[in-house]
């Protein structure tokens, strides 16, 4: 492995610039999305208010028209009643005049009255009939008068109601005018935002293309370093086999150049730091880092590589045996991965690889079929070709995000290397030909994050007892996204005191420490009634003998060798063994 500090420094600067650049792009995209969402919500709200106002104004107009028609009918009725009243008054006056004339005639012809009694009787009968008709007409006039008074009162009330409605209509018109003015202003702001969004989108596309190239170069460099580390690991394993064969001989009492326990511990610790910190740096979406943390982790990688190189060169080919790490639980049904791509070469490249990694792969060749399968299968993730027929990836992504059954499924866009830069919210992007190792790492992260209750399964309080500062920092870096409170001590006695005092949900313990070793820590914690139920995860670089394993059996939950450390496996052990326990108050 290269031991030049210049290469590590260049790698650190490249990672630093790339991460800063990506953070700025994501910040711009998030702020712009939030502004657009707020303006769209305001436009929809104003449109709804304007429509409600228009409907209310139309309703008021209809009511006013109905009232005007009713008033016109009432006026006609009043006019007819007044005409009838005038006619009755004229008839009454005429009858009164006729009676006066009759009385005068009667007074003037009293003498003739005796002679004309029959004529007078007849006239009296006629007068009685006229009197009855007059009384009837008076009654009718009283009824008409009452109706007229009621109609006049109603007309007055209707006039007041009409004035009130006209006032409300005027206020509504003023409010509608204000809404129209506000809406015009918001439209102008929206047009400005749309123009700004177009500018930012063009800029972010250019930045994303530049970052994609830099990220590929950085991933290639890290991959090359990983291959070199794998070669070193293989050499150490071969030396381990040679050591075992030599130790097995009855005459062998020592081996020239064999690694001392201190050297084995150093090699395992440095390998742990290299593998762990490089995994954190490669998967920044799952492990967001600050600039200071990224610089610190790169320094750990640099120092560990130098120390490991010096130790390997000083050895004669021996290495402490590494135990097999705990197997991943595969009893559950393999998760489905839906791939929407009509490219046969892409399928031949990634389908066998994903199946060997333990996933079920389902292929579809067009957007409608992908929508149908996604809602039915509920896959772990959906891989979408950017040029998927019939309408391309953006149309399919919009449909998937609109459907409540598929809106939370992770999406990965597969783009050609010569295609224009593509940026879509909440979508990962992989460039063809797909880097299979990068794809599997992405699926493992989706697998770990698929359960919405991951954070609830994580231990709330975790205690790390380890004198290796890099190992402690690595545990904190991996658990940072899960909001786990991690406390640490660098010696066994302080670890025992803090565990008995604070009662953590899970203890991560190194077995090799100065003074009191990890075995005594386990014994002390198991003697406490409450701590006897708390899981202990052994995280050590010590080469465990059969006697060591027998001493640990039944007292610890799991054992993780630092030399074989993998962040995904470490998280899976925490999820299985570190569920929060409810304690009595």
Q: What's the CATH C level of the domain at 26-203?
A: Mainly Alpha
Major sheet strand order: 2-1-3-4-5
Estimated share of beta-strand residues = 5-15%
CATH topology of the domain at 26-203: Helix Hairpins
How would you name the oligomeric state of the polypeptide chains in this document? single chain
Helix percent reads 55-70%
**Total of DSSP H or I helical runs spanning 4+ residues:** 15
Q: Nearest-angstrom radius of gyration? A: 47 Å
**CATH A-level architecture of the domain at 26-203:** Orthogonal Bundle
Cα end-to-end separation = 54 Å
Count of distinct strands: 10
Mean pLDDT: 76
- Which term fits the overall shape? elongated
Series of secondary-structure elements, N-terminal to C-terminal: HHHHHEHEHEHEEHHEHEHEHEHEH
The helix/strand class is: alpha/beta
Biggest pleated sheet:
5 strands, parallel
Low-confidence stretches: 246-257, 316-331, 578-585
Element layout with pairings:
Layout: H1 5-108, H2 110-115, H3 117-248, H4 261-282, H5 291-314, E1 336-340, H6 344-356, E2 360-364, H7 367-377, E3 381-385, H8 393-402, E4 411-415, E5 427-431, H9 436-449, H10 454-457, E6 461-465, H11 469-479, E7 485-489, H12 492-502, E8 506-509, H13 518-527, E9 536-540, H14 546-552, E10 558-561, H15 567-577
Parallel strand pairs: 1-2, 1-3, 3-4, 4-5, 6-7, 6-8, 8-9, 9-10
Helix pairs in contact: 1-3, 1-5, 3-4, 4-5, 4-11, 7-8, 12-13
């Amino acid at each position: 492995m290269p031991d030049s500090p210049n290469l590590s420094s260049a790698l650190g600067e490249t990672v630093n610039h790339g991460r800063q650049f990506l953070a700025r792009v994501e910040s711009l995209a998030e702020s712009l999305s939030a502004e657009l969402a707020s303006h769209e919500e305001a436009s929809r709200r104003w449109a709804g208010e304007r429509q409600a106002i228009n409907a209310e104004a139309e309703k008021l107009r209809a009511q006013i028209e109905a009232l005007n028609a009713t008033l016109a009918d009432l006026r006609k009725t009043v006019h007819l009643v007044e005409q009838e009243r005038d006619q009755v008054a004229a008839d009454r006056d005429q009858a009164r005049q006729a009676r006066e004339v009759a009385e005068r005639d009667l007074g003037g012809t009293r003498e003739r009255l005796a002679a004309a009694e029959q004529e007078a009787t007849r006239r009296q009968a006629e007068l009685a009939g006229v009197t009855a008709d007059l009384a009837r007409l008076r009654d009718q006039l009283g009824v008409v008068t009452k109706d007229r008074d009621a109609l006049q009162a109603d007309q007055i009330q209707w006039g007041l109601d009409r004035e009130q409605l006209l006032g409300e209509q005027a206020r509504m018109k003023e409010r509608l005018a204000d809404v129209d003015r506000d809406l015009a202003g918001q439209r102008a702001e929206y047009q400005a935002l749309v123009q700004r969004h177009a500018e930012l989108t063009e800029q972010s596309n250019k930045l994303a293309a530049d970052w994609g190239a830099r990220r590929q170069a950085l991933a290639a460099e890290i991959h090359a370093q990983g291959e070199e580390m794998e070669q070193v690991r293989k050499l150490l394993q071969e030396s381990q086999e040679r050591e075992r064969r030599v130790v097995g001989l009855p005459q062998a009492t020592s081996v020239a150049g064999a690694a001392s326990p201190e050297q084995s511990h150093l090699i395992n610790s440095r390998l742990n730091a290299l593998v762990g910190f490089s995994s954190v740096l490669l998967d920044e979406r799952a492990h967001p880092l600050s600039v200071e943390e990224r610089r610190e982790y790169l320094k750990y990688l640099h120092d560990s590589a130098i120390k490991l190189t010096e130790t390997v060169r000083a050895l004669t080919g021996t290495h402490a045996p590494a135990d097999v790490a705990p197997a991943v639980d595969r009893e559950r049904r393999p998760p489905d991965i839906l791939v929407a791509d009509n490219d046969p070469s892409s399928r031949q490249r990634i389908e066998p690889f994903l199946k060997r990694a333990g996933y079920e792969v389902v292929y579809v060749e067009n957007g409608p079929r992908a929508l149908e399968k996604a809602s039915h299968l509920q896959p772990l993730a959906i891989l979408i070709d950017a040029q998927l027929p019939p309408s391309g990836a953006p149309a399919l992504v919009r449909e998937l995000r609109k459907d409540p059954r598929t809106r939370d499924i992770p999406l990965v866009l597969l783009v050609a290397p010569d295609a224009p830069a593509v940026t879509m919210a909440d979508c990962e992007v992989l460039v063809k030909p797909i880097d299979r190792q990068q794809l599997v790492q992405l699926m493992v992260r989706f697998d770990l994050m698929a359960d919405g209750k991951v954070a609830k399964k994580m231990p709330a309080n975790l205690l790390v007892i380890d004198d290796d500062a890099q190992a402690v920092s690595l545990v904190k870096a991996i658990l940072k996204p899960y909001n786990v409170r991690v406390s640490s001590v660098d010696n066994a006695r302080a670890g025992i005191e803090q565990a008995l005092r604070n009662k953590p949900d899970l203890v991560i313990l190194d077995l090799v420490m100065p003074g009191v070793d990890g075995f005594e820590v386990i014994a002390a914690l198991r003697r406490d009634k409450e701590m006897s139920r708390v899981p202990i995860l052994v995280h050590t670089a010590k080469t465990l003998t059969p006697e060591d394993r027998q001493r640990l059996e039944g007292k610890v939950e799991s054992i993780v060798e630092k030399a074989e450390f993998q962040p995904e496996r470490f998280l899976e052990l925490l999820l299985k063994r570190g569920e929060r326990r409810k304690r009595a108050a």
